[in-house]
User: Fold this.
Amino acid sequence: MLVVRDVPASSRFYQQALAAESGHGGDEYEQIVSNGEILLQLHAVDVEHHHGRLADPDRPLGNGVLLWFEVADFNATVEQVRATGAPVVRDVHTNPNARQQEIWVSDPDGYLVVLAGPSEYRPRA
Assistant:
């Protein structure tokens, strides 16, 4: 679950970047889903619900957090994430450790999002 300042804006970003869809919708809470599986949950920073606040709204969000998603079609994902207008932090490159292509972008709240293609290191059956 990711705490964000604007759930609908973050939802649009993640839906487009991950070719996913809304599984809940709303201004306070959202589920980003693909093929019936939840990829990510979003929660408004200033909403307490039954559990109290999940983050301090007066502190910066995302410091030290990288959200990492492995995607099946890396090239299509790069096009999708570029279409969001998200700032590119590290453009397309090959990670020498994971042996996969990656692109790093910032989401609407400044969280680093790493989108990675399939790894040669972990071949799929």
The radius of gyration is 15 Å. The chain is about 20% helix and 35% strand.
